Amino acid sequence: MSLLTSLFGAGKSGSAPPARASSVARSDGSKRSGGSVAVNAVDLGEMRAKAANDKLRVVSEAIAEHDTYLATLAIYERLIAVYRAKKAGLEALAAARGAVRDAVDAVATPRAGNDDRIDNEETGTGVRYEVSPEELLEQLGPEPRPPAKRSPVNEPKVAADGTEGPPLFLLACAALEGARDAIRVVPTLLKRGADPNAKGTRHDHGADVPALCLVVGAMENVAEIIAASQAETPMEDDEKPMDDETPMEDENEPPPPERLSPATADDLADFATALLAAPNLDVNAVGRLGRVHESAKNADLNAPYKGLVPYKGRCGAEGTALFLASCAATNNALTGDPRGAVAAVHVAARLMGSGADVNAVEIGRASCRERV
C-alpha cells in the first residue's frame, strides 16, 4: 500500500479534486448552477433513489418468484412420487390377479351364467374386488405434468427507468445509483443460480454490457460524478410554499423516497469483488461502454432519468474488465482522484487473481467522439 500511496497519495474514495463551480444537469436536459435551485427543478437525489428502489423491488420480486417456482417444483416432485408408487402397486396387483385367473382358467371351466363372478372374484381364493385393479388404474389418470422450466433470477426484467436485464444486472445498476444495500443481495441471487455473466442495457452506460464490465467501467472519473452530486441541493426552506399555500397532506400518500448519492469508487470495487466470488464468472468477458442512442429500446422510459449517473469514461471504450480497470486507475490518477485510482488498482489485482488475461488489449476505443 505504501507504493500505491507514494504513486497516488491519499484521499477519500470518490472525492473530487478542488473543482470549478459547475452546473448540474437535470433529468430534463437543462442545467442549474451548483448551490441554487431553479423553479420546478428536479431533485436528482430523489430521482436516483426512485430509480434504485424500483430496481431493488424488481430484484426482490424475482427472488420471491424464484422461491415460489422452487416450492411448486417440490410439490410436483412429491405428487409424481406418490402417483408412480400408486401406479406401480396397482400394476403389480393387476398382474398378480391376472396370474391367478390364468391359473384358474387352466384347471376350471366357468359355469354357465356365472361369468360376472369371474370378473370381480378370484375363484378359489374368496377374494372379491369391489373395483378391479384395472379400473383403479384407469381412474388414476395420466401423470401430473411438471411446471414449465424457468429461472426467474435469470429472466430479463425492465425497470422504471428503461434499464433492461436479468436481476443481477439491475442490482449492479442500483449499486451505481447509490443503493448501498445492493451488494448484500448479490450472494442471495448467486445461491439461487443467478448467472454472474448477466448482460443488460443501461442507457447511460451501454447495451448488452456484462454486469462486471459495467461496475468496473463506471469507476473511471467517478470523482467527477461525486462532485456534481455534491452540488445538488434539495429545495431550501425559503423556496418552499408558505404555510397558507401548503396543500393539505394526504395521509395515504407515501412519503417521498430518500435521496441517494452516486456510488463511490470503493462502493463499485466492493460490488465487483462480490461478483468475483461466483465460481463460473467469465472474467474475460468484453463490454462496450457509452450512452446508447436515443432511438434505443425503452429510451422513452429512460428520458426522465437521463444522466442521473452518467458514464464519464471515453464513449466507445471496449474491452475486458481488467482493461477497463486499467483505464480507470490511469485516468483517476491523472485527474487527481488518488483513492479512486487505488480502488481501481485493487480491482485489477483481484481480476488477475481470478484468472483475467493480462495480455488482453482493448477491442476498440474512440479517440475524440462526442457522447450521443
Describe the protein's architecture and organization.
It is a single chain. The protein is mainly alpha-helical and about 375 residues long. Helix content is about 45%, strand content about 10%. The chain has 12 helices and 10 strands. The strands form 5 sheets. The protein has a two-stranded antiparallel ribbon with strand order 1-2. The longest helix has about 60 residues. The protein is elongated, with a radius of gyration of 32 Å. The protein starts with a helix and ends in a 19-residue tail after the last helix.
Shape: elongated
Q: Tell me the span between the first and last alpha carbons.
A: 39 Å
Describe the main β-sheet briefly.
Answer: 2 strands, antiparallel
- Secondary-structure content class: mainly alpha
Number of strands: 10
Oligomeric composition of the shown chains: single chain
Query: Over all CA atoms, what is the radius of gyration?
Result: 32 Å
- Beta content comes to 5-15%
Topology pattern, helix = H, strand = E: HEEHHEEHEEHHEEHHHEHEHH
Q: What ranges have pLDDT less than 50 throughout 5 or more consecutive residues?
A: 1-8, 10-41, 236-240, 366-372
Instruction: Average the pLDDT over all residues and give the rounded result.
Output: 79
Walk me through the topology.
Elements: H1 2-8, E1 23-25, E2 31-33, H2 44-107, H3 115-120, E3 121-122, E4 127-128, H4 133-140, E5 157-158, E6 164-165, H5 167-176, H6 182-191, E7 199-202, E8 206-210, H7 211-217, H8 222-230, H9 265-276, E9 286-288, H10 299-302, E10 318-320, H11 321-334, H12 338-353
Antiparallel strand pairs: 1-2, 3-4, 5-6, 7-8, 9-10
Helix pairs in contact: 1-12, 2-4, 2-5, 5-6, 5-7, 6-9, 7-11, 9-12, 11-12
